[in-house]
Structures are given as C-alpha cells and as structure tokens.
Amino acid sequence: MPAFDKKYDKQNLHEVISDLPLQFSQALEETKTKINPQTKKIVFCGLGGSALPANILKTFLCADKIDFNIPIKISRDYTLPQPVDKNWCGFFDSYSGNTEETLSALKQAEKIGLKQIVVLANNGQLKKIAQKKGYKFIQIPDTKQPRMSYGYIVGTMLKIFHNSKIIDLDLDKLKTETQKVYKKNKDLEKQAKTLAKKTQNSVPLIYASNIWKYLAMVWKINFNENSKVPAFWNAFPELNHNEMVGFENTNCQYKNIIIQDPADHPPIKKRMQTFQKILKNKLNTEIITMPSGSVAYKMFYSLSLGLWTSYYLALLNKLDPAPVKLVERFKKML
User: Fold this and answer.
1) Domain locations in the chain?
2) What residues are annotated to the active site?
3) What's the rounded mean pLDDT across residues 227-255?
4) What would the pLDDT profile of 17-34 be if each residue is shown by its tens digit?
C-alpha cells in the first residue's frame, strides 16, 4: 500500500493524520482565552467529530489523575441538558459552524442568559454569531474534516483551563510527549497497514478498559467515517455481562481489536485474555498493547494508530477516506 495515494486520497488526509499530534502543540502555543476561575460546571455542545474532543479531554483528565473537579457534561442534541442554568460555562463547537443542533443549543443558552459562552468553529454561522455578539471565539484551523481537528481542540481546552488557573499543567512536557507521537508516524503507519489488512472484509469491534472506553469509541468512528464500514465499540468489564453472549450466534465476520493499557487493572487484563480464549472459535480477536509512557503519549499514540488503520483500510477498499457523502446527502434531505 502506498503511503499517500492521490487516486483515492484526493484531499491528502495522509498529511492531516500525520500532523494531528502537532495540532495539540499548536493549540497550547496559540490559545490565550480564559474563563472565570470560579467556574463550577461546564457544558460542551457538539455533534459528530466536533463532540469527540470533549470525550478525549475527559479521558485525559481522568487517566492522568489531574486535580480537576469541574463536571463536564457533553451535549449532542438540539437542547441543553436539563440541569444547565445561567451559571454554567458553555462551549459550542462546530467545525463547519453550521451544525443545526449546536446553533439551536446556543440559542437556548442565550435565552436562559448563560453568563459564559465560548465558541469554536472554522467558519459558518457560529463564527458570525460569535463575532457579532462578542463571544469568546476559538478559530479552528483547516483540517479538511471535523473529526480531524480534535488534537487542536483538546489542546485548546486544556490551555483555557490552564490560563484560567483551574488546572496546573506542565505545558512543555505535554508538547514534548505529543511531538514524540509525531516522530513515530512511520512505525504507526507500518503497524496500521498490517492491522488494516487483517480487518478487511470484517466488521471491526473495538474494546478497551473503562478508563479508555472513549478511545475505543473514536476508533469506531474512524472506521465509520474514513473506511466507510460499520463498526462497534464497548468496554470491559461491562461487555462481559451482556454483549459477549451475542457471539454465540454470529452470522457475519468480525475483527475484534482490544486496546490494552499495560497499566490496566490486573482483573481487567485477565478479563481481556479470558474473553479472547473463550471466544477463540467464534471471534477473530487481537489485543493491541498501548505503549508505556505518559498518559498524553499513550493516548495520542493509540488515537493515531486508530486513524492510520482506518485510513489504510479505506485505501484497501479503494475509497477516498475524507468525504462523508452519506452525511452530506442526509443533511440536504433534511
């Protein structure tokens, strides 16, 4: 498989994926925005690729055991979650700036008098509203597709919290760790090509421990949007209590990828190994071990591997990984 195939990858998504870890460093350097240091609750509104950063952010804060006690509620809907009132801080993220659900949620935020509003967009109506009404605004760089901008947005959110003295981060260390991932791109691509070949003509199932469950979700979404295939995700130990029973009567071919952290709790590791053994005649399972190192390094390394795998699966299937034609068609029909 070529590293970059102009015949299929017409938007050069190869370059965007390669540079994604650097988005994080860029955001840490560029972001000057602050919120009230007395902020008690946060709501993050976004859909699709514009909601992913909030899940990744929460994963990082939890896995790195950062002293951060502000609840972040993620809203993927036309309305704000019921508990949200004017005292919350609201982040409204839409890469296109035209996501109707996010625009609707912003209108509701204005109606209830939300005191803190931060808008993130590349263009569109959301950007115009922010500029007209003087909301705090984050310009998302051009990454071709919303799902490819999460490195920048996660970095932006962390820098906002740092600027606001809500958390204390070693910014230089974070930059170094994500730049290490960038330098690993060739190794990641090599591993991804092998995994993509093993996944071809199968339905990907992505599993991880509960603490890393949103990494599994992002992998799943990458397979959907880049490879244009159905995919599913779940987490240990919950899946051992329900989902695995479904494999007693399978009627299609699955490729099960388990993302295992060397630091996962021993009982979780045992569950992963036992799951692989008990279903060895029913399910093609492969355990992918995350690298050792800092949480930032492990997280971005694993996210990059998922992106590269879905990218090369798209090329194997002779598809352009960038566009999401069905989504655009659906929007037009609405």
Assistant:
1) 13-176, 184-316
2) 225, 241, 331
3) 96
4) 999 999 999 999 999 999
